[in-house]
Amino acid sequence: MNYTEIMVRYGELSTKGKNRQAFISRLHGNVTKALHEFPDLTIRPKRDRLHIELNGEDAKAVMARLSKVFGIQTYSPSVKVEKDMAKVHERCWT
Questions:
Q1: 8-20 in b/e burial notation, b at 16+ Cβ within 10 A?
Q2: Across the chain, what does the average pLDDT equal?
Q3: In this predicted structure, what is the pLDDT of residue 94?
Q4: What is the CATH number of the domain that holds 20?
Q5: 15-24, 40-49, 71-80: the lowest-pLDDT one
Q6: What is the largest CA-CA distance in the chain?
Q7: Are 23 and 84 in contact (CB under 8 A)?
Q8: Per-residue CA distances from 71 to 39, 49, 79 (Å)
Q9: Which structural domain range is residue 11 located in?
Q10: SS3 for 5?
Q11: What's the domain count of the chain?
């Protein structure tokens, strides 16, 4: 399957208080630095997750790099599809 994104879940950020945004910014910087060899990636930090749009980059190679970044709890490759069950079925099960 050709993945289009990787969703990254943060680790212990749920226990952070007023400095939560500083931790998210630091993690975003660390992920960006770790993935600098992949110029086509788009990295979008959110409150609870970080989304990495692959834009044609190799998902396995990106995930191998992510495994070395401190502060990431888990990550999952995913496929972006329209909000239509027929499209989801077509994209994921054919």
A1: bebeebeeeeeee
A2: 88
A3: 64
A4: 3.30.2130.30
A5: 15-24
A6: 46
A7: no
A8: 22, 12, 24
A9: 5-92
A10: strand
A11: 1
